[in-house]
Design a protein that fits this description.
Order of helices and strands: HHEEEEEEEEEEEEEHEEEEE
Number of helices: 3
Strand content: over 45%
Helix content: under 10%
Shape: globular
Largest sheet: 8 strands, antiparallel, barrel
Number of strands: 18
Length: about 290
């Protein structure tokens, strides 16, 4: 509803009527809104917004409605609006919201972002000192346990056409680290990783698919606990940069979700009311930097 209203009344600004008559607003607050469009005036539905106060503290965040619009009720004051969307250059603006007024920024047009330059073709290797292989598991149906693997290595052969590249990563299963020795010893045991029988985990991929902008899908075979399954890494390519000593570096972030049953890691104990002590899925988060080999 708000999106259609804004679409018909762009840039009509504040006042006590209109939108304010339909939205309950406390006496000390006002309404901030805008509509986000792409260069051909189509709504950017997947855009996200963040409103921060004068001290830089986030007041409200969220996504757009189906018409590319958002409406937020905030205390009267000065604000900084940031709008971001995959494939577009971020937009920032200042806004002042008065008591019982509607501050509309009207139509905000996002510009298509140029994707970061791709790395040169050749052999590259993971820099373990500036990379991390982390994971998150659900615990007792409520909390989350965070961990990482401290020992890993990997190589990437960048092709002239990135889609033809290949990578191979090896992780030392015994290097699992959740900062609790008793738990780590259990995770290394036959109930979970069984590191005596399966000392490493390996991922090999030769399928790099560009999803648009800086997003890539890297699909390959993950061998874990003696079982190989196809896994896709949802990857954000961050570009090429220079290190402190002038060395060339390439960085990316990636995430995926693994299901323990797929790799025959089926140990489980149940708590009261049938709640599992350990969740069935594990979220993997990667922050990777690579250097030219040698």
């Amino acid at each position: 509803m708000f999106g259609r209203w804004l679409g018909n009344r762009t840039n009509r600004g504040g006042g006590a009527g209109g939108l304010l008559s339909a939205v309950p607003v406390p006496p000390s607050a006002g309404v901030l809104s805008c509509r986000v469009l792409d260069p051909v005036n189509e709504p950017v539905r997947h855009a996200e917004f963040a409103v921060s106060d004068a001290m830089g503290r986030k007041v409200v965040t969220g996504g757009m409605d189906p018409f590319g619009s958002f409406v937020a009720t905030v205390p009267a004051g000065d604000y900084r609006l940031a709008v971001s969307a995959e494939g577009f250059t971020p937009y920032r603006a200042n806004a002042t919201v008065g008591e019982s007024t509607h501050a509309s920024l009207g139509d905000v047009m996002l510009q298509v972002a140029h994707p970061p330059a791709l790395p040169d073709a050749g052999d590259w290797e993971i820099d373990p000192l500036h990379s991390s292989v982390g994971f998150t598991a659900r615990h007792i149906g409520l909390a989350r346990i965070h961990g990482r693997f401290n020992s890993f290595a990997g190589a990437i052969r960048m092709a002239d056409r990135m889609e033809n590249s290949a990578m191979h990563v090896v992780i030392d299963a015994a290097s699992i680290d959740t900062a609790v020795k008793m738990r780590d010893d259990h995770l290394r045991s036959g109930d979970f990783l069984d590191v005596e029988r399966f000392p490493t985990m390996e991922f090999y991929s030769d399928r790099f698919v560009h999803k648009g902008g800086s997003r890539w899908a890297v699909t390959g075979g993950l061998t874990l606990h003696g079982v190989t399954r196809t896994v896709t890494l949802d990857t954000e390519y961050l570009g090429v940069g220079r290190g402190l000593e002038g060395e060339t570096r390439v960085a990316c972030r990636a995430t995926t979700e693994l299901h323990r049953d797929d790799f025959t890691i089926t140990w489980q104990t149940m708590l009261a009311r049938g709640i599992a002590a350990v969740g069935p899925s594990i979220t993997i988060d990667l922050d990777i930097q690579v250097l030219p080999k040698g």
